[in-house]
């Protein structure tokens, strides 16, 4: 039987492909430290579960396809506090940020169209773009330049007749880069001048270590261009709820996106109600406390990484990820080694190998992405295990 060429162009997630080896390691009695997936251990706000338990209806019905009114109103109020007045119809509830991205791509891409994406990039962007017929044209960045990319000389030479959009993440996954106001303005100007969509993935907006936060929606004159991807997953440590939002003032785009929303009927009713309550009940103090905790985890991680000979990295400005270059030939092979052949005091570690974060896998063979989503002492031990594992791996491979 023939399968779609679009799905064949997609790869397995570098964050999740090692799960069978992890299960085998755990079955042998090993403790596995996780730096591979952005799953925070910060407590989900109790108001979420309280709101779900409070539901008394005799039936859990379909929610409206655009979203529960309480959730849409809560998101609207949240953006109002950012200085962005949104109207009804400019917010669409989605299954997390992931579905928002897929809907946006389905609405704008024809077969063979291109999306400019700073590289390294979140690997699932490849999936969302490929299955909707497009392809990524990477905007190269480097650690030496702090992974900065928002300039005309880097972007405009890549624009051609098939370019449909620029897709950025700020704060960045996997680099931790936070775009400045001037860089965001530059991107908005480029998108407007070249009649491109500017898709801004802002799911980590609250995790900026300077405390500042901004959205692409705040810039005037590009209402038709800007599309924002949002989610409660990382903002409120509620990854399993799968409640996100597609936000844009481009009414034609949002009207077309509604077709997708009606086709998949709705997103989970109770999770939307819980998400709405979090937006209503939590604000500046909550976000500041969470940000301070991630700052502690960042400091523990970079301090421990500084003790690994040959490890190179740039300290992240936001989110909870960083890319690291390691003194090994292939970090995917290193990961299998750590799960199948290595242990220290009954413990080992997982990370996300870097090849999947690049359009050309060889560019990331010696790199990894670390998610510093657990307590500082856990991160310190995880990075220590990484260093010990590298030493053991190099002894094996250099015999």
Written overview of the protein:
- The protein is of the alpha/beta class and 399 residues long.
- Helix content is 38%, strand content 15%.
- The protein has 13 helices and 13 strands.
- The chain has helices at residues 5-8, 19-27, 46-54, 69-81, 96-108, 124-131, 152-155, 181-193, 251-263, 269-281, 284-305, 331-340, 376-397; strands spanning 31-34, 91-94, 114-119, 135-140, 163-169, 197-201, 226-231, 244-248, 312-313, 321-325, 347-350, 352-353, 367-371.
- Strands 2-8-7-6-5-3-4 form a 7-stranded mixed beta sheet, with helices on both faces. Strands 9-10-13-12 form a 4-stranded antiparallel beta sheet. A two-stranded parallel sheet has the order 1-11.
- Helix 3 packs across helix 10 (269-281), helix 4 (69-81) runs parallel beside helix 10 (269-281) and helix 5 packs parallel to helix 6.
- The longest helix is centred in the last third of the chain and has 22 residues, at 284-305.
- The chain is globular and about 65 Å long.
- The chain starts with a helix and ends with a helix.
- The relative contact order is 0.18.
- The model has no long low-confidence stretch (mean pLDDT 95).
Summary?
The protein is α/β, with parallel strands linked by helices. It has helices at 5-8, 19-27, 46-54, 69-81, 96-108, 124-131, 152-155, 181-193, 251-263, 269-281, 284-305, 331-340, 376-397, and strands spanning 31-34, 91-94, 114-119, 135-140, 163-169, 197-201, 226-231, 244-248, 312-313, 321-325, 347-350, 352-353, 367-371.
Features:
alpha/beta; 13 strands; 38% helix
Q: Could you give a short account of the major beta sheet?
A: 7 strands, mixed
Assign an overall shape.
globular
Portion of residues in beta strands equals 15-25%
Share of helical residues: 25-40%
Q: Alpha-carbon distance between the termini?
A: 46 Å
Helix/strand-derived class?
A: alpha/beta
The whole-number mean of residue pLDDT values reads: 95
The total of beta strands comes to 13
In angstroms, what is the radius of gyration?
A: 21 Å
Q: Going across the major beta sheet, what is the strand order?
A: 2-8-7-6-5-3-4
Low-confidence blocks of residues: none
Discrete helix count: 13
